Predict the 3D structure of the following.
Amino acid sequence: MADPVLNILVVPTYNTFTLGVVDASFYPVGFNITSVTLLITPPGFDAVSVPFTENEFTAYNSTTLGITDVGEPILPIPDGVYYFNYSVNPNYKYFVEKSIMRVDRLQERFDEAFMKLDMMECDLAIKTQAKVDLNTIYFFIQGSIAAANNCAIIESNKLYETAYKMLNNFIARNCGCTGRNFN
């Protein structure tokens, strides 16, 4: 019998309060799936074993990830590098490990700045520079994600921090962000 090929995908939920994970594994016919374990390590927190069912999608929040205690208000999940270890069968015989850079909170702020950008600004130079700035910030966000997906964690964190600082500076300059065209 062939061995399983384990894989998990982190699926966008478009929500800062949830993290979506789906099992995208190949299990050969007749393979007995036992001892399903998914460990998630959020940035700055200890690894936590979370409920997970093979061939299913599961959404996690700050409580299931061990960031907040049961009964406390659910908080937005932090951005940063998340580590995943998915295994089946006793003694972790079959497993896959992944890391991803979560950028949902930064992306939310980027989207707000983008939507407030007055695209009808009469000063073409200001509008053009704002577009260049936003494209550059977006480039750094995507670079951070790509680096984490390729286990370049230090580079991923550097790119995230650069995007974060650039976005803060962009917003602080008022960036032509009147919001007039979207209110």
